[in-house]
Design a protein that fits this description.
The chain is mainly α. The protein has one domain. The protein is 72% helix and 1% strand. A two-stranded antiparallel ribbon has the order 1-2. Strand 1 and strand 2 form a beta hairpin. Helix 6 runs antiparallel to helix 16 and helix 9 crosses helix 19.
C-alpha cells in the first residue's frame, strides 16, 4: 500500500477532492444535527450530486457525509434531548443533563473529540485489517462467494429490529427487486410483466430514495404531532482541562474497540455499539453514580463507539463486498455507480484508489474537529427549523435525485411506490436495511449460485465439499435455528422450574 501512496495522495489531495470532503463534512454534520434525517437519508440525498464528479471527489463526499453525520446526531441529543440520528440515542442520557446544567459547550467538546478519536481508531483498524481480509478473500470462488453472501444476508436479517421472519422477508423483497430485468447469463428479460420500462430493471437510486427518504417523509407527515421548532439550549464549544481527559483514557480505548468490533459484525450497527459502550463505561467507571446526571464519560463512551463503527463497517464492505448495514449498503451502491466495485478484486486492481479512500476517511474524521468547533454556534439556529419546512425540502430533493439518475420519468413512479411500500413496511415493523442489502446482493448471490452449479454439474450438495463454504453454511444454519433453539431452552427451563415448585 505504501508504494501506491504518492498516486493516492494526488487523488485525495487534489483541489476538487479537498473541496468535496469539506462540503461533505458540513452537509454530514447538518444532516446529523437535524432530527429525522440521519446518515442513510443524508447519503441518499447527496448521491445524485456525485454523478457529475470525478471518482475521488464522489468518494470524498460520500465518506465525509457518512462519518460526519454520525457525529452530528450528538448535537441535537445534547441541545434538545432528541438524537439527530439513532446512533446518538445513548448520548441523550448524559449529554442533555449537562446542557441543562449550563455545560452544553463542554458536552459538545467531549462529543466532538470522542467522535474524532473513535473514527481515527477505526481508520487504523481499517487500514491494517481490510487488505489482509482482501488477500484471504482471493481464495473465494463462486461457491464460497455464494455461501458468504447467504450467511451475511441471514445474519443481517437475524439482528434486524423485530422478528427474524420479517428480516428474512425484507431481504427476499430486495432480492426480487434486484432480479428484475435482464438475466446476467442468458440476457433474457425477467419479471417485466410485458411492461417495457421494467425491461432494464430497477435503478438503485430511485429505490434508495423511495425506501429511505420518501418513507421518512410519509412517516413524519403521518405521526408528527408538533411541526413547530423545538426548545433549544444554546450551545458552543469548550474543551475540558487536560487532567479530565487523562482520567478517562480507558473509556476512549474500550469504546473505540467496542465500536470497531461491532462495526465489523453484519447488521449490528452504531446504535447497539453506543449503548454497549455506555453500559461498559458505567460498569467500569469510578463515577458510576454520576451516570444519567450529566457525567461526561457517558457522552465519551457513546460518541466514541458510534463513530468507531464507521471504519469497522467499511472493512467487510470494501474487502468482501458485503455491506454490514443499510448505510454501508448505500455506500457500496454509490461506489458501484461510479465504477468502483468493492470486493475481492478491488484491492488488487485499484490499490491507489483504495489508499485514497483511507486518506479521505482520515480527512473526514479530522474535519469533525474543525467543523464541530467552528460551527458550534450555528447548530442551535439550525435546530430551530420547523419540520413543516424541513420535510417538504427533503421530498423535493428526493424527487430531483430520483430523476437525475437516468432522466427517466418512470423513476419518479419507482421512488413514490417504493416510498409507499417502505412506509407500509415500517408501520408493520419490517426493517428497511435488509431490503437494500438484498437488492444489491441479489444478483451476485444468483450469479455465484449458478456458476457453482455449473462447476459441480448441478449438484448443490457438492458445495459442502469446500471447507470455507461448509463452515459458512454451518453458521447460516445456526443463525436460522437460533430462535427455535432459544425457545426450546426457555421451555425446558420453564418446565424445570415448574417441576421444582411441585416437588416443594
Amino acid at each position: 500500500m505504501i508504494e501506491h501512496l504518492p498516486e493516492a495522495m494526488s487523488l485525495a489531495f487534489s483541489w476538487h477532492a479537498l473541496l468535496a470532503v469539506l462540503a461533505g463534512s458540513v452537509v454530514g454534520v447538518v444532516v446529523g444535527v437535524l432530527p429525522g434525517l440521519g446518515s442513510a437519508l443524508g447519503l441518499v440525498m447527496v448521491l445524485p450530486i456525485t454523478f457529475g464528479l470525478e471518482p475521488a471527489a464522489a468518494i470524498a463526499v460520500l465518506v465525509s457525509v457518512y462519518a460526519c453525520s454520525i457525529y452530528g446526531g450528538s448535537v441535537s441529543a445534547i441541545l434538545i434531548n432528541v438524537p439527530g440520528t439513532p446512533q446518538s440515542a445513548a448520548t441523550v442520557i448524559d449529554g442533555y443533563p449537562m446542557a441543562q446544567q449550563g455545560k452544553a459547550a463542554l458536552a459538545l467538546g467531549w462529543a466532538t473529540v470522542g467522535s474524532f478519536i473513535g473514527g481515527m481508531f477505526s481508520l487504523v483498524l481499517l487500514v491494517l485489517t481490510a487488505p489482509q481480509l482482501a488477500k484471504f478473500s482471493l481464495n473465494f470462488g463462486p461457491i464460497e462467494t455464494f455461501a458468504l453472501i447467504l450467511f451475511a444476508m441471514t445474519t443481517i436479517a437475524w439482528v434486524s429490529h423485530g422478528s427474524m421472519v420479517k428480516g428474512v422477508l425484507a431481504s427476499l423483497i430486495g432480492v426480487f427487486l434486484g432480479l428484475v430485468g435482464p438475466d446476467q447469463m442468458t440476457g433474457q428479460i425477467r419479471f417485466d410483466f410485458d411492461f417495457f420500462a421494467l425491461s432494464g430493471g430497477f435503478a438503485l437510486v430511485p429505490v434508495l430514495i423511495g425506501i429511505f427518504a420518501m418513507s421518512e417523509v410519509l412517516i413524519q407527515a403521518a405521526f408528527l404531532k408538533d411541526a413547530s421548532a423545538p426548545t433549544v439550549i444554546e450551545g458552543g464549544f469548550k474543551l475540558a482541562p487536560w487532567h479530565e481527559w487523562c482520567i478517562r483514557w480507558k473509556t476512549f480505548l474500550r469504546s473505540s474497540v467496542i465500536g470497531s468490533f461491532i462495526g465489523i459484525l453484519p447488521g449490528t450497527g452504531a446504535t447497539a455499539a453506543a449503548f454497549i459502550a455506555y453500559a461498559d463505561a458505567k460498569r467500569n467507571s469510578p463515577r458510576t453514580g454520576n451516570f444519567g446526571h450529566g457525567e461526561p464519560e457517558g457522552v465519551v463512551a457513546s460518541e466514541t463507539a458510534n463513530n468507531a463503527v464507521s471504519g469497522g463497517a467499511m472493512i467487510p464492505m470494501l474487502a468482501l463486498g458485503i455491506p454490514g448495514d443499510g448505510v454501508t449498503a448505500i455506500m457500496m451502491g454509490a461506489l458501484t455507480i461510479h465504477g468502483i466495485v468493492p470486493g475481492v478484486r478491488l484491492f488488487s486492481d485499484q490499490p491507489a484508489l483504495v489508499t485514497s479512500i483511507f486518506l479521505l476517511f482520515f480527512l473526514a474524521n479530522f474535519l469533525i474537529l474543525i467543523v464541530g468547533a467552528a460551527g458550534a454556534g450555528l447548530y442551535a439556529r439550525l435546530l430551530r427549523a420547523p419540520m413543516s419546512l424541513l420535510m417538504p425540502a427533503v421530498a423535493l430533493l428526493s424527487f430531483v435525485g430520483a430523476y437525475a439518475t437516468r432522466s427517466a420519468p418512470f423513476d419518479f413512479t419507482v421512488a413514490i411506490v417504493a416510498g409507499v411500500v417502505g412506509f407500509l413496511l415500517r408501520l408493520n415493523g419490517f426493517p428497511l436495511a435488509p431490503i437494500i442489502i438484498g437488492f444489491i446482493l441479489g444478483r451476485p448471490l444468483e450469479m455465484s449460485l449458478r456458476q457453482g452449479l455449473v462447476m459441480t454439474d448441478q449438484n448443490f450438495f457438492a458445495f459442502a465439499l469446500s471447507p470455507i463454504a461448509a463452515v459458512l453454511f454451518a453458521l447460516t444454519v445456526v443463525v436460522l435455528l437460533h430462535p427455535v433453539i432459544t425457545k426450546c431452552i426457555s421451555a425446558l427451563r420453564g418446565n424445570g422450574s415448574d417441576s421444582a415448585k411441585e416437588m416443594n
